[in-house]
Amino acid sequence: MEENIYSGQTDIDHEHIELLEAVRSLTPEHREVIHLFYYEGCSGKEIADILDVNENTVKSRLRRARHELQSVWSEDDE
């Protein structure tokens, strides 16, 4: 996944790099739903099918991942 995020991007700004590092710091379960949702554009149903989990599980993981990202992001601002 990480290669996909960086590929073809030559002028990444500092804030974008910080965001990518924050995503990389997530647990694998959270990182994969974030990647599929935001970078691949998959719907919750599509992610559930890809990961072979319930759609509500995907929603929970996305919510937790967003919260975790927000925590990491706010720590970087301090």
Explain what you see:
Helix 4 crosses helix 5. The chain has helices spanning 2-6, 14-24, 28-39, 44-51, 55-77. The model has no long low-confidence stretch (mean pLDDT 84). The protein contains 5 helices and no strands. By secondary structure, it is mainly α. It starts with a helix and ends with a helix. It has a domain at 27-78: Orthogonal Bundle (Arc Repressor Mutant, subunit A), CATH 1.10.10.10.
Q: Quick gist of this model?
A:
With 78 residues, the chain is an all-alpha fold. The protein has helices at 2-6, 14-24, 28-39, 44-51, 55-77.
Which characteristics define this entry?
76% helix, mainly alpha, elongated, 78 residues, Arc Repressor Mutant, subunit A
Topology of this protein?
Blueprint: H1 2-6, H2 14-24, H3 28-39, H4 44-51, H5 55-77
Helix pairs in contact: 3-5, 4-5
* Radius of gyration using CA atoms only: 13 Å
Q: Give the second-level CATH assignment, the architecture of one domain.
A: Orthogonal Bundle
Main beta-sheet annotation = none
CATH topology of one domain: Arc Repressor Mutant, subunit A
Rounded mean pLDDT score: 84
Percent helix range: over 70%
Instruction: Give the strand tally.
Output: 0
> CATH class of one domain, please?
Mainly Alpha
Beta-strand content bin: under 5%
Distance between the termini: 29 Å
Order of helices and strands: HHHHH
Q: How many H/I helices?
A: 5
Principal-axes shape call: elongated
Low-confidence stretches: none
Q: What is the CATH superfamily label of one domain? A: Winged helix-like DNA-binding domain superfamily/Winged helix DNA-binding domain
Structural class determined from secondary elements: mainly alpha
